[in-house]
Design goal:
Blueprint (H helix, E strand, L loop, with lengths): L1 E6 L2 E4 L4 E9 L6 E7 L5 E7 L5 E3 L7 E6 L4 E6 L8 E8 L11 E2 L3 E6 L1
Parallel strand pairs: 2-11
Antiparallel strand pairs: 1-3, 3-8, 4-5, 4-9, 5-6, 7-8, 9-10, 9-11
């Protein structure tokens, strides 16, 4: 089993920055791939960024050049540094984990409870 807890969300003005964290615990093998998703009100959940055990990061086009995913294996923590925030980044952000990377599909077996990010213009 894997447990994921996100924190670091909040309110920020457009152009600002926020850093999300996801504290992970449980079976290490089951979280070899980790990802960030988001869900805006009235919309489906979409992938934002993911990072595999090889350290290779993949980003959605909408956040490329603005967001950076990273992980600190010693601290069992996944991060999402969000810069140049836009109002359209407003959403609930979720951390997800799996033994393999499922791209930006919703097939990851483990999910956190989410943390809210609100960006005002």
């Amino acid at each position: 089993q894997v447990q994921l807890v996100e924190f670091g969300g909040g309110s920020e003005q457009a152009g600002g920055s926020l850093r999300l964290s996801c504290a992970a615990s449980g079976d290490t093998y089951s979280r070899r791939c980790m990802a960030w998703f988001r869900q805006a009100p009235g919309k489906g959940r979409e992938g934002v960024a993911r990072i595999g055990n090889d350290g290779i990061a993949i980003y959605a086009d909408s956040v490329k050049g603005r967001f950076t995913i990273s992980q600190d294996n010693a601290k069992n923590t996944l991060y999402l540094q969000m810069n140049s925030l836009k109002p359209e980044d407003t959403a609930m952000y979720y951390c997800a984990a799996g033994r393999i990377c499922y791209g930006f599909t919703l097939l990851y077996p483990y999910w956190g409870q989410g943390t809210q990010v609100t960006v005002s213009s």
